[in-house]
Amino acid sequence: MLIWLILAVVLGVRQKFDSDNQILHNDPAFDELESIAEHPLGTKILQTVALQLATSDGIQSITTLLTNLKSDLEGKQIQQDGQNAAIQSQCKTDMDSYGQRIQLAVNEINDCEFKIGRMEGDIEDLQGELELKQSYIDILQNSENSLRELRLKQSANYNKRSSQLKEMIQAFQVMLPKMMEFYDESKAGQDGESFLQEEAFADSFVRLAKCGPDNPIVALVQMSRMMDPTSLQTIIEKMEMVRDSLVGSVDEETTLEEQNIRDNDVLMNEIFNDIQAIQREKAADEQSLAETIMNRDAQQKRSSDAQAEFQASKAGMKQRRNQQHNREVS
Fold first, then answer.
1. Residue 229 and residue 252: Cα distance in Å, rounded?
2. How far apart are CA 116 and CA 270, in angstroms?
3. How far is CA 106 from the centre of its chain?
4. pLDDT digits over 57-78, tens only?
5. Whole-number Å distance between alpha carbons of 21 and 320
6. N-terminal to C-terminal alpha carbon distance within the chain
7. How would you classify residue 21: left for phi > 0, otherwise alpha for psi between -120 and 50, otherwise beta?
8. pLDDT digits (tens, 9 = 90+) for 180-191
9. Tens of pLDDT along 97-139?
């Protein structure tokens, strides 16, 4: 455009030279030349025109120069237009690429957030299941300890009762033969006792004394010598019943103890199996929890990478847009 303006002015000046053969300083064309001189390119061209005017070539050479310059600039303009079109096309391609990258990043972030939320729920559920299973194991282990303590108490009580009953039976086993002897002597009307009888009688007292201090049974044996045969027989029969009852009690206690042992073994075995089953389930849940946490962490890394890609693409698009705007303005 500047070249066309300069050319028009120069041609106008040439016409003035051709008609008047002098420079008309007050002509409007010279005002236009002054405005052209303010442009860098216009200044260079005017300097070239002034140089040509100072030579012998005159206006014709200036016209030729400007015509050639116009053709050259038109060619460069076409080349520049092509470059601008290529740059604009590349800008559009880059903008489209950034747009696609941004959309892919957004989709990636949304997908990651969805999966992370679902996994966080799974992690919370698994942690709750693990706490519940551990509470079951604690309850079963407490029950197991309680059963062991109960079994120890049952065994101690059985041993104590059994020992007492056996001591009482042993005392009856010592007393009854001696009382039967007193009964036979009383029934036969024997008034005295031999030295050997007295020695055997003293030995029985020693054996009875071993059953415990202040044993009332010893007094009962002593009193039996002063009883009549009928009363003594009645006492002997009662004592035999008591002895037989004690023997039966020992058998009952033994049977009960054996049953307690079997029942305890069954319960302990059930508790053991229950604990083993829950521990296997707990181990599987712990494995699932570890895998879920690992997958959650991987999704968080994926989301972080997608967010970085989003920010980079967004910054790249903004920079490309600013470059395109600055090129259009210039």
1. 34
2. 41
3. 27
4. 555 665 666 676 666 666 666 6
5. 57
6. 16
7. left
8. 877 777 777 644
9. 888 999 999 999 999 999 999 999 999 999 999 999 999 999 9
CA–CA dist 257, 279 (Å, integer) = 32
Report the C-alpha gap between 175 and 220 in whole angstroms: 9
Query: What is the sign, positive or negative, of the torsion defined by CA atoms of 117, 123, 129, 132?
Result: negative
Distance CA 7, CA 65 (A): 10
- For 330, what's the count of Cα atoms within 13 Å in the CB-facing half-sphere? 7
Contact 112, 306 (CB under 8 A): yes
- Alpha carbon 274 to its chain's center: 25
**CB distance 1 to 53 below 8 Å:** no
**Side chain identity at residue 308, one-letter code:** A
Distances (CA, A) of 148 to 30, 263, 279: 123, 12, 21
Q: Is 22 left (phi over 0), alpha (psi -120 to 50) or beta?
A: beta
Q: Using the 8-state DSSP alphabet, how is residue 6 labeled?
A: H
Residue 1 confidence (pLDDT) above 60: no
- Nearest-Å Rg of the Cα atoms of the chain is 63
Instruction: Return the residue matching tokens 């039996």.
Output: 224
- The residues near 261 (Cβ < 8 Å, ≥ 6 apart) are 151
Write out the two tokens for 61: 């050479």
pLDDT of res. 281 = 96
Classified as helix, coil or strand, 39 is coil
φ, ψ dihedrals at 22, nearest 5°? -150, 160
Pick from 128, 126, 114, 107: nearest CA to 293: 126
Instruction: Quote the CA–CA distance of 177 and 186 in Å, as a whole number.
Output: 14
* C-alpha to C-alpha distances, 229 to 182, 234, 277, nearest whole angstrom: 9, 9, 71
State how far the Cα of 37 lies from the Cα of 246, in Å rounded to an integer.
143
Predicted pLDDT of residue 77: 65
Locate 48 and state its tokens.
């070239």
Question: Which residue has tokens 């910054």?
Answer: 315
User: DSSP label at 55?
Assistant: S
